[in-house]
Amino acid sequence: MNVQGVIKYVYDNRLGKDGSANKFPNFKFKVGEQEIVLWSSILHPAIAKGKNVSVTVQASKKNGSLFVLTKEDKSPMIQELPSGAKPDTSFNVDDFESENFNEAVTAIEKDIASSSVPTKAFNKDEYMWTMALLKSGIESGKIGVTKEEIDLKIKDYKFLFQMNFHN
Questions:
Q1: CA proximity to 70, closest of 56, 54, 81, 59
Q2: Which of 33, 45, 41, 49 is CA-nearest to residue 80?
Q3: What are the tens digits of pLDDT across the range 20-65?
């Protein structure tokens, strides 16, 4: 996840309350409404109150708090943005995915329709594969035993067989 914005505050947690060195030195800072932790004993030059930054973060599995991701060379993924730069909000992931998905489905359908490979009248491999999947689905209770559901699953399994095994 990427967080962009102005740093509101920075807390230096390298020393404990008694002044001794902290076992896990870190810096906590707030960007927008997100509090982020940089696990490091060295303060990154881009981290200062009032600076406009872009930070790549991940949520902790233990407590859900956000922490800064690091590159392979152990440098934090923080970038200082020029002053006055605004985040680019013109890109919508959902639209991008749906457009590409629709294009991919159309391309696959055209490939299947244009293929001149003669199909067998009865494909025993396809039949056995489809029936095995259908039987296991019915026995596990994942597929309802209605004519419509079974017909839909048979069509789906035949399509999967053709796509995966090119028959």
A1: 56
A2: 45
A3: 887 777 888 888 888 888 888 777 777 888 888 888 888 888 888 8
Rounded CA gap, 79 and 26, in Å?
Answer: 18
Cα(30)–Cα(11) distance, integer angstroms = 9
Q: Phi, psi (5° rounding) for residue 78?
A: -125, 135
- Which positions ≥6 away from 85 have C-beta within 8 Å? 52
Quick one: which H or E segment has residue 123? none
C-alpha to C-alpha distance for 66 and 56, rounded to whole angstroms: 10
Query: Are residues 51 and 79 in contact, defined by beta-carbon separation less than 8 angstroms?
Result: no
How much is the pTM?
0.46
Residue type, 101: F
**H helix runs in 6-92, sequence order:** none
Angle at 147 between CA 145 and CA 153, to 5 degrees: 80
